[in-house]
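Thread: Modeling a multi-component assembly for a lab meeting

Hi all, long-time lurker, first post. My supervisor asked me to bring a structural picture of a complex we are working on to next week's group meeting, and I have zero experience with this. I have the sequence lines for every component (1460 residues in total). Could someone generate the structure of the whole assembly? Inputs are pasted exactly as I received them:
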Amino acid sequence: MAGNTFGTVFKVSTFGESHGNALGCVIDGCPSGLTIDSDDIQKALNRRKPGSTGQDGKLNPSVTARKEDDKVEILSGIFNNKTEGTPIALLIRNTSQHSSDYSNLETTFRPGHADFTYYQKYGFRDYRGGGRSSGRETAARVAAGAVAQKLLEKYNIKVVAYTLKACGIECTKKDISQIEQNLMRAPDNESAQKMQEKIEEIRKSGDSAGGVIECVIQNCPAGLGEPVFDKLDAELAKAMLSIGAVKGIEFGRGFEVSDLSGSQNNDSMHSQNGKPVFDSNNAGGILGGISNGNEIVFRLAVKPVPSIYKNQDTVKIDGDDFVSTQLEIKGRHDICLCPRIVPVVEAMANLVIADMLLRNMSAKA
Amino acid sequence: MAGNTFGTVFKVSTFGESHGNALGCVIDGCPSGLTIDSDDIQKALNRRKPGSTGQDGKLNPSVTARKEDDKVEILSGIFNNKTEGTPIALLIRNTSQHSSDYSNLETTFRPGHADFTYYQKYGFRDYRGGGRSSGRETAARVAAGAVAQKLLEKYNIKVVAYTLKACGIECTKKDISQIEQNLMRAPDNESAQKMQEKIEEIRKSGDSAGGVIECVIQNCPAGLGEPVFDKLDAELAKAMLSIGAVKGIEFGRGFEVSDLSGSQNNDSMHSQNGKPVFDSNNAGGILGGISNGNEIVFRLAVKPVPSIYKNQDTVKIDGDDFVSTQLEIKGRHDICLCPRIVPVVEAMANLVIADMLLRNMSAKA
Amino acid sequence: MAGNTFGTVFKVSTFGESHGNALGCVIDGCPSGLTIDSDDIQKALNRRKPGSTGQDGKLNPSVTARKEDDKVEILSGIFNNKTEGTPIALLIRNTSQHSSDYSNLETTFRPGHADFTYYQKYGFRDYRGGGRSSGRETAARVAAGAVAQKLLEKYNIKVVAYTLKACGIECTKKDISQIEQNLMRAPDNESAQKMQEKIEEIRKSGDSAGGVIECVIQNCPAGLGEPVFDKLDAELAKAMLSIGAVKGIEFGRGFEVSDLSGSQNNDSMHSQNGKPVFDSNNAGGILGGISNGNEIVFRLAVKPVPSIYKNQDTVKIDGDDFVSTQLEIKGRHDICLCPRIVPVVEAMANLVIADMLLRNMSAKA
Amino acid sequence: MAGNTFGTVFKVSTFGESHGNALGCVIDGCPSGLTIDSDDIQKALNRRKPGSTGQDGKLNPSVTARKEDDKVEILSGIFNNKTEGTPIALLIRNTSQHSSDYSNLETTFRPGHADFTYYQKYGFRDYRGGGRSSGRETAARVAAGAVAQKLLEKYNIKVVAYTLKACGIECTKKDISQIEQNLMRAPDNESAQKMQEKIEEIRKSGDSAGGVIECVIQNCPAGLGEPVFDKLDAELAKAMLSIGAVKGIEFGRGFEVSDLSGSQNNDSMHSQNGKPVFDSNNAGGILGGISNGNEIVFRLAVKPVPSIYKNQDTVKIDGDDFVSTQLEIKGRHDICLCPRIVPVVEAMANLVIADMLLRNMSAKA
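Re: Modeling a multi-component assembly
Sure thing. I ran the full set together rather than chain by chain. Output:
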C-alpha cells in the first residue's frame, strides 16, 4: 500500500517524477467557497524555485529567464476563483529536463541518495534525476500548501519557517521581517551573510553543508490534534520527516528537556481577563498532542546535500550481483538545502493544520 | 475525525481511560497462522508495569503483590493459539483504581499535563487520573506490539530500545545484554547506577527528570517505507511522537548532521560477495524514506514527568471564566519516565515495522 | 488489508467470533457530549436477540430465561453518562456457547455458508458456529448503531426498517405502528400472520425461506453524501451488502426504473413557502449521491437461511484434497432471517448517516 | 471529508468538471513492473466515447471527427512502458466544451439531476454541464480501470459487462461474442436491434429509457473480499452505486432469492479430481463476502436519462427563496445510458478486483 496521499480530511495526493512529463497534486476535501486563483499558488511556487535562493552568493541573474519554470495550471475544482468543494487538481509541467546523459546512473547508486532503496523496493526505477525521489517532488507540496494556506488565512493562522543554522553558523537573533531579505531565508541578515560566505567556501571545496530550520505557527487555536495516535506533534513530525534531507524534529525545548527538571520544564499558567495564559512555552504549544493556544514551535535537522563533487565509493549492478565502483557526480547542485526547504516546511505545516482544523469540526458535533 | 487507530494494513485501535472499566485494543489485519498465546502478551505487559522498574532505587518489592495488575485477556481472533486473520481484541481491566479524591482536578488543570487541552477540545473530560491522556493508555500499545512482534520474529527482525541518558547522565557504552540488568533499562550498568542515585536525589527534592531513549531495529530488510509521505522515518516519527512525554526524534546522526559536510555524512558503499555493504550508518538505516538494510537507529527526547511535589501556578474554571490558582499534586509518581517508556517505544516500532512489512507486499505484486 | 472497520469519521471496528470469549466494538470519532447509558444500547441488543422474534409461531417463552444473553458492558469513552470524544468500547460476552460437538464441521463445508471461503482465504478457521462469519457478529453492529442513533436523534433523523415480504408473502400495507406488534416485524399484522403460518409449514418440511426488507430514513437533511465515490447510496449499499444474507439493494423505484421513461421517473419540484418540495420520490431521496431532503428509501433481498434439515452434497478436506461428502446440519436454526436482520439494517443505516453527517461538516468550513 | 478516492491499496483519486480545463486521475498503489502504454488506456477511453455507441440507430458518423476527444496523456508513474510503483497520473483535456449558454442553469435545477443537491451541499457550484456531477467524470474511471485491467490480466482475471435489458426489451440469449457487434452492447444482436428501434421511437417522443446491465467476472480466485465490512459484494455494490444513474444491484439470483427456499438456493458442491466444484451459482460467486472461485455475477438497474425534451416543473433560486418554474432542457442527449455505462461498470469492477487482489496479499503473510 503506497503512501503518496497526505492528510485525512484535507487530503493531498501528489504525483510526478523529476524528468517525467509533469508533476502535480489532487486536493480532495478542501471546503467550498474559498477565494483563490492561480497567482496565489504561483507565488508560492516561485518562492521555492532554484533561482530564487541563489546560493552562489548573489541573487541568481537567471531568475527572470526561468520565469516560465514551475508554472502552475489549475485543472479542476476552482470556478470563478472560488473552490467548489470538488477535487482541486494542479499541474506543473517539467519543461527544463536537461537532455544530459543519466545512463551512468542507470546501474550505479549515488551515496546518500534514494537510488539504492528505490531499486530494492520496486526492482525498477526511473533513474533520471532521482525520479520520484527527487526534491523536485516538493513543488507539488508547495502548490497544495498554498491552497491550505487560504483556509488558514480564514482562521487567521499563520505559518513561518526560516533557516536557524547553516554550515555550522547559527542566527543570533530571530527577526521575522528579515527572512526574505537574504538568500538564506534566515531571520538575521548578518548571520545570513556569514552563512553565504561559508557556503561559497564549501562550494569551492566541492562539498556541501547541513543546517537547522525552525518553524513557528502563530494563532493556532487550542484544541487541534487527535490523540492518542494522530496527535498534533505526531502529525507534524510525520509531515516534516517526509521531506527529503530532514533527519530530526524537536518541539519547544526539544532535546534540551532531557536535561531539565519538571519544575524547569512545566509551563505554568495564570488568568488574564478570564482567559488562560501560559507563562512560558517549553512545550512548543502542544500538550498531550493537542494545541494549547500558544505558538507552536519546532526545529528540523537538515542533512548536507548528498551530491558532492568528490569521488565516492559505491556499488553498481552487474547482472544479479552488486560490484564496487566509484562515482563522481556531475552537474550543478545546491550546497545547503535550508533556504529551499523553508517553503516546503511551511507548505507541510499548512497542510497539517488545515487537516487538523477540519478534523476537529466533529469533536463536539 | 478522531485518531485512535494506528497503522494502515496492520491496524491497531486502542481504547480506555485511566480510571474507566478497562482498556485494550483491537488489531485488524494481522495475518492468519501466527502462533501466539496470552503469555506472550502478558510478558510484554509485565515489562511495562510500574513495579518492574522500581525507580526508588531498588526492585520494587510489590511487584509480586501486583501480579494481577494488567492481566490481559484475549477476546477474539486467536483460536488454538493461532491467529485467525480476524480481529484480535485484547482486554486489560482497570483493577487498581484508587478511590482517591480527584475532585480537585475536575476544574483545575495540572501544568505540563493534557488536562487543559482535552478540556479545550472536547468541552468535557474524565478528570480521574488523566482519563484518556494518562500514560496508562500505553498498556494497550504494548499488548498490540507483542502481537506485531510475533510477525517480526517470523521475518527475523528485532527491535531493541534503551535509556541512553537520564537526569543529565549519559551511558558511556552500549552493551545490549545489560539493559534488563538494571532498573533504568540502560545498556550500561555503571551509568545506570549513577542515574538511580541522581533520581533518588531528585525525588527527595520533589522534582523530576528527563532523558533520552535510543532504539535500534536489527535485520530490517531493505525496501520498507512508502514515499513520498509514508516514508519509514516519517511513520516512525509519528509513532514515537504519539507517545506522551516524547518531544523530539532524530535518525542516525540526527541533529549533528546540521554541522557535517556531505562528504562526512554520506554513507559510501562497497560490494562483499556480490552483496552491497554500507561503510557507515550516518543515515540511521533509511534513505529516501526506505530502509536500506542497515540497522535503523533513532533517539527520542523524553521530557521530565510533569507531576511534581511543588506548588505550581495554574488556572481553574470558574463558570465561564478561567481564574488563577495554585496546585500541589499529591500521590506517588515516577521521577523519570525513560525505563517505563522503553517497552512502549519498542511496541510502537514493532507496529510500524509490521505495518510496513505488510504494506510492502503489494509493491511488486 | 482486512476490513473490520466501518465508517471514516464515525468509525466502528468490530471483533469477535461466534464461540470465542466475547464480541464487541470500538467506536472512534463519536462527538463528545452526547447523553447515553448502557440501557440505550441494551434495548437495541434485546431487539436483535433470537428469542425476541420467536419464529416458531409464538413469542418464544425462553426470552426471559435468556435475559442474561448479549449483556453489553461499556468499557470506555462514556463518563457520567456522557460521551467523552474518546473511543467507546462495548463488550458482549459469549455466555451461551453450547458445548455441542462441531468437530464434524472442522473439515466439512456447509453449503451456502462462508466455511469454504474463509478456509480458502485464511487457510485456517474457527469452525465453531461459523466463527467470525456467524450472524452473531451483527450484535456488535447493533450496539454501535445504538450509539450512532443518539447522534441522529440530536439531528432529529430517524431510521425505520421492516419486513416487506417473506416466504413469498408481501405486505399489502405499510403501517409503521404495527412493526413491533408482530413477530415478523412487518408493517402489516395480517400479512405477518400469513407469513408466520407459511414459516411454520416450511419449518416442518425442514427447509427455510427468504424475503425482502425495506428501510426508510426520515428527516435526513439535504446535502449528505460525498461524490463521486462515497455517494450516500454507494455507502448505504456497501453497508447493507456487508450484512450476511443480503444479496441485493435497490433505491426508490429500484429495478423498476429499467422499464420507466425519463418523464415517468424524474421527480419534479415546486416551491412551497419559499422551500423546495419534490412532487414524487422515485429517486428514493438521493440525487447524484447526495440526499435531497426527501425520505430515503431502499429495499434489500434477503436469501433463505442456508442451514436446512436436509441432506446436502458438499466437500470436505482430506489431506491436500477435497473429497465429495454429504452433510445434514443439526441444531436449531431460524427459518427466515428478515425479522432478525431488521435491527441490523437499522443499525447500519444509523452508522452510515452518522458518518455522513460528520463528514459533511467540513464541506463548507 | 470528501470522497473522490476509490480503493485502499490500489487507490484511485479522480478530478475534473464537465467544462473545466481537464479531468483525470492519480493511481497510487499500482505495483511496479506492469507493462502498459497510453494506447492501452486510449482504447478503453475510445470505447466510452459518445460517438462509439451511436444511439441514433447507426454508428455515429462523427466518430472519426471526434478522434481527438478524450485523448489521454500519461503524466507520471510509467517509465519505458513499465509501471514504476509511483503514482500514475492520467490527464484528459476538455477540448469540446461548447460555448453554449448555461446561464439559465445557474439558478434553475434540472429535475432528476444532481444540480439541486450539489447546491445544497456546497452552497456554490459549477453549473456548466453538470460540473463534477456530469457523467463525463467517468472518463477518469475508465482510464484508471484500464490500468487495473493490466494487473488483472497478469492474474488471468477478466471482467465482462453488457446490456441485458433496455427500454423494456430483454435479451433472450447471452452470447458474449456479440456484445461489441451492436450499438447497445447487448450479448444478443437481435434483441439489440429491437432495443435500437424502440430507442428511436422514444427519441422522437422527446423522452428517454432505462435498462439493466449485467456484469460477469471470470477466473476470479477464491479468497478475495475482506469481511465483515469490506466484503467483496459490499465493495462491488459501493463501486457500482457510485456510478450515476445506477439505482440498484443484485448478486447471483438477486431479488429472486426472496421467493426461494434454502434447498433451492444453496449451491451444493462436489469434488472433481480433488478440487471443489459448485453445482450451481445462485450465490453469484460470493459466500460470506469472499469470492468462492465461481464466476461473479451481478446486475444493475439503470435509470432513464433525466435530460428529456419536455417541459418539467422545477424550482429556481430567487434571492434566499426557491420559486417554482418550468424548464425545457436543450442540446443533444443520450436516450438510454446502458451502452455507455457498460465500460464504466467494467472499469469499476476492474478497480475493485485489483484492490481486493492486493489487499488479500497480507492475509496469510
